[in-house]
Amino acid sequence: MGVEQTYLDQLNSNFDLGIKLVQKKIHKLEEEIKACERYISHLEKNLQSYDEEVNQLKDKCKVILGELKKCQDHLELKEEALVIQDNRIIQLEDIIDKLKSRIQELSKSNNNHSEEEQKNMAIPDILINIARALDRVESYFDGDTSFNPKNTLDGIRILLTTARELMQRNAQDAINMQGLYRIANDRINGLRNDLTTTRNQCLRRAQLLTLAYNNEVNERRRWWQIAQDRQTNGQRIALRKQNRINVLIGEKAILQRINQRRKAEAELAEFNRAFVFNRYQKWKGRELNSRQIILNLQNNPPGNMATIQDVMHTLAPLLAQLPNYDGQEPPDVYYQKLRNINEMARPLAVAGFNAVARCQVMINKMTGRFAPVPANDPYAVGNPAINTEPLFLNWLREKYREVMVGTNRSAIFALVNEKFLETDTPDSYEKRIKPLVQAMPDADALPYLFNQLPSDLEMRVRIATPATVIAFFTDLRNIWHESAGKRIQAHTIAPVNYKAQPQKDDFKIRLARDLAYTGIGTDDATLENFIYEELKKRLGGQTAHVRKSPFTPRSAYATKKVVRKVVPSKASSKLVRHCSVCGNAGHTKVNCPRLKRTKKVNYVYQNEEEDPEDSEDSEEYILEEDSEEEIEDDNEDDIDDESRNCYALKKKWCEVEYL
To answer: Where does the signal peptide begin and end (predicted)?
Structure first.
């Protein structure tokens, strides 16, 4: 009853702790709900401030629109001023056009006066004639002898005399006209100066008006851009504020849902607390009843409960199937088999089948050199009693090493030749090496194992300092998995492939040269086509080969079988010949099918056939792979090795069909 009271006290304390935890959780949830409410109120205040900012931005937009209207009015006034200036510019352009027309009139009067003088003057015409005469003299010097140069020179002298008289006559006229020309030049220069002054003034006014117009346009564009930017910024800010308001509204809705969920969880926690307390009361009663039933069963065991005899009866067939141990396999493997058999009795839940009984089952399976098993382990420190499965395994390992120490020489030789290969994993390596080191002491086996590893793995395993073979394999597995992605690349010797150099077969080349081949290409396809075409021209008939190509390998068992195929033919008035062997018409004894003779010419099986007009039947030869029906001479194999022309005989070839 003391135990029951202690258990009840423990259950009560656990229940009180559960209630306190639930209360703390409820308190925590309430604090979170209050924090959420505070955050919601803060968001509402932020929304109000955002609304005020939006209203302020709307007012700023209205002010900007008023300024834009004022700018538009100002621009309209400037446009009117620009219209007036444009009219002034047009008037100035009309004045300039009038001045230009006057200048043109003056220039025309000067031109007319000069034309009259030119008409009165004959000197230019004389000079032109002199120039032409000089050109003719020059052409005479160049080789033109179609005229007399003396006549040309006389004409030049006459022209020069006339020009001299005219020049003397016009010299006085020039002196008289010099004064008039000076007066005219003074008047022209004065008009030109006036025209230049007027033009400069007009250009200056036009530049000023253009500059004012461009400044006005740029100013108007700048104010329009400012207005557009302010309007766009206002819309963008308003849109951003609206998006922020929407986000805050969404967060508010989410926080409200979280608040509702927290309240629901608090209510559910309260309900669960009451429900757990009720279940606790029920399980408390069930526990008390179970303990009472256990006590009753311990004091009064029923007759149908399993005993140690039932356990041994269950394990007997399994133990009989497993042969007694005499060192035929490693101790770890045999121990695992015994352990599996012992685990088969665990579902029976027999208290008598404890660790000592399990160990005794394993001891009873020892025989030969491993029997009898001593009561204490002589190999362990302190000589403990062998009464558990792990202690039995330690004794079995040491006994196995002691018994097998005389036969481990071959294991050492095999162990020396082993290596951790590139394709190995720790499991495959352990499976291959462990049987070799099972009968060796750990201190003797570890140096061999270290030497079998690659350099990087060996260094890391040596740093781990495993004390036993089992620890060595465990450390090797851990280190190998840690270096995943950086596997050990073993140094392997690449095999040397000796490629045989094929010898050039010049049979086709020599055959093509015999047939007067003059081409350049020496590949197989070109030579074969030339040979076939040339042989068709020379033999004058269709050739057919029993093999698809005379240049490809053939079967050594190819024979020829004659199949009789009757073809109806027209009646012939010629004399019909009959075979003297079989008596049939259409062939003679030379090619009678009953003789079953084949003829081989170099590389081709062939047979002669008479003209279709002289035979009523046609024969079709079928190539078969039949070693039993082959009829050849003994020296044909020697003949095949010689290089001979397969087209040495000119014959008519028969039709051949391949199977």
So the answer is: none
